[in-house]
Amino acid sequence: MKEENDRLYMERALHLAEQGRGRVSPNPMVGAVLVKEGRIIGEGFHACYGGLHAERAALESCREAPRGSTLYVTLEPCCHYGKQPPCTDAVLENGIRRVVVGSGDPNPLVAGKGIEKLKAHGVEVTEGVLQGPCEKLNEIFFHFIRTKTPYVIMKYAMTMDGKLACVSGASRWITGETARKKVHEDRNQYTAIMVGVGTVLADDPLLTCRLPQGRNPVRIVCDTHLRTPVYAQVVATASQTRTILASCCTDPERREPYLEAGCELLAVPEKNGHLDLAALMEKLGAKGIDSILLEGGAELHWSALQAGIVQKVQAYIGTKLFGGQKAPSPVGGNGVPTPEEAFRLAPPAVTVLGEDLLLESEVIPCSPES
Ligand code: AOF
Ligand code: ZN
């Protein structure tokens, strides 16, 4: 009975945590519920970056004295001074008797020390309740805090015969409205969106979020030789929406017009004639960019897979067939020579979006000897 209730309250805490989605990065989403004698007496979540942590938000909302209550929290309470004071202090000061934790906090400043401190002060701690869903909730934060590089989601829409466009190059539309709305929900949520210069030259995209009250992701263009046209939409709108051009070109004269237009230029070393994508990820991580939607083209997808920077693949599948030997597919480059050398993906999550499908799979990292 106790375990069943623990799961129910943790589910509620997970639901609360979700409300911080897209607003707390690069911090984690966290939800908290305070329960006393079988009643919820307070609830809270981490609502904005730098803001009150979930535990203190729940305490602030309390309808009665929290002394003797149980705290359900999706992430181990912190025990360090950051932008906010330690949550462990709040737990102890308020006489909370028991703390139920979903997942541990891999932040080296916390990493088990929060739970240890609570136990050392006589608080009963139960760990690992709905651990899987709690870890999944913060897959981006967990990746970012461990690697200091962004979580990269390679996203594309293709037909059921694996085409990104018709032979003519026309691609509007592959998927229907429901799927296209989800794309904009994702742009509202992830920190950045990245494309190759080929995509800018071919489509002149805006790469913004077209939802009312939506937030635009930071736009990143991988442009080894600085070929982005100064009149491209991403450059022309750079003063409204942050735009980063990642390039090997360090010539101040060539960089000047982009800087004037409000772009940021990121100098990246060259590797085999292209941008060193692993080095780029480190630089973007240092800028606090914790997640990237990688939206093509095919050559950049291949390079990104080879560089080992992709964590997840999002394949939208439109229920159409384009055909055409020369019609492009989502991943270019040389391709792997044999099926054994394929990039491996975990079993996918399948979502039906109107008449289309979305398959989402994590990339299984290559072992160094393979
Ligand atoms: C919690 N509850 O709601 C959150 C936690 O700079 P700060 O003070 O906001 O600290 C950020 C770190 O604290 C973050 O990296 C993560 O380890 C933890 N976030 N912890 O107990 C919360 N948001
Ligand atoms: Zn905290």
Could you explain the architecture of this structure?
- The protein is α/β, with parallel strands linked by helices.
- The chain folds into two domains: 2-142, Cytidine Deaminase, domain 2 (3-Layer(aba) Sandwich); 150-362, Dihydrofolate Reductase, subunit A (3-Layer(aba) Sandwich), CATH 3.40.430.
- The protein is built from twelve helices and 16 strands.
- It has helices spanning 2-18, 54-60, 87-93, 113-120, 131-137, 139-147, 177-189, 197-203, 233-236, 252-260, 277-286, 298-307, and strands spanning 31-36, 39-45, 70-75, 98-103, 124-126, 151-159, 192-196, 218-222, 243-247, 264-267, 270-271, 274-275, 291-294, 312-318, 349-353, 356-362.
- The strands form three sheets. It has a nine-stranded mixed sheet with strand order 10-9-8-7-13-6-14-16-15.
- The radius of gyration is 23 Å and the shape is elongated.
- The N and C termini lie far apart (48 Å).
- Residues 27-28, 30, 46, 50, 53-55, 75, 77-78, 82-84, 87, 105, 107, 110 line the site of ligand AOF.
